[in-house]
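Section 5.1 Outputs to date
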Amino acid sequence: MPTILKSIYKDITSQLKLRVNMNSEYRDYFNISFNPDCISRTTNSPPCKMRPGGEKKIKATIKLLKYFPDKNISIGLVNEGIREELTINVEMIESCGCKREENSSLCSSSGTKRCGICECNEGSTGDICQCKGNIVSLGMDTCRQPGSNKVCNGLGDCVCGSCICKERFKGKFCECNEDSCPRGENGLICSNLGTCDCGTCRCNDGWSRPDCSCPTSVGHCSDGDVICNNRGKCECGLCICEPISQWDARHEQNQHCHISPCPSCHILQCQHLESCALCHLRKKKCDCSHFNVKVVSNITESWAKCPDVSVDVGCYTQMVYRYASDRYGIDVIIQSELNCAKSHLTLGGIVLVSIILLGILICIIYKYITKRRDQQEVEKFEKKLLSENFESHENPNYQPASTKFENPTFGSEIN
């Protein structure tokens, strides 16, 4: 049983709600507010918590908005959680005997300053008579957002029927948080290039996007009068370049869509140009919209020169090109006069070499035939020598190459 009572007691005392208990006819003459020491400036702050046995201070302010003749008034402050009431007796003082200063500048020139307090003239209200009209009769309703029972959404004070918002909040009912707008890449609200208006960035001139990070000027997309070299579009100060075409041998471009030079791509570029240039040279129907081809009898321009182009068997011509400066394309010039002398010289050399090689081949064949014939004769002769029916005969006309003579007296003894 004690445990149940303890749990019920904790539920009852989990929240503290104060209510003002006073005669309804006095409510328009008083402004009573409570300010506990756990109030936070943010809308999503956690509830005010405290430990068992702890203590919280609540500051109550009772402000007299307008004098009325009643002498004593009782105001009750009721704690609805535990049903306790604190009764405050208010005694009205009609006169303090202080020096009067009518239409004082400290009372907005609309009231009398006496004893440090402004006594407002008819039609003016407020601490310093700054409010015009019967604002007091409206109470706090003008400071409550439709659908909310909080004055200024709990983020400001109601003064003269209007909300005076706390720091970082604004709006008619303090409903706008200046920190609720999107942040840019630099981590700052609206990229520090605009103001936050109820969750929406109001960008400064020259900036756009929800976080004001995008410059509207195209100056960053151009290094002259042309935007992105006419090969892209400018988005937030950056060029979104078109891809380099397949007919273009170059492969890199800078931030303004200018294609970078590529000396090592020269031969490959000539290969891309050759078929289109020959098509114009032969006066055929050519699909070369990206090339501006011109046929001349003799090339005089000092453009990038390609290796000799083969037009026919043994005949060549010259071709030069340059990248156009006023458009994305290439200017090409091909020479109509052909150079066939090189082919004649080459053909003559080939014929001469062929004759020399043919003569050497004939000599080799002749040598081989004669050697083979002599070898066959020798083999035939040797076969006859080995034959059984072969008889040796001495040629009667044969004369030896040398003659032998003998001295009969050589070697005998001499007496």
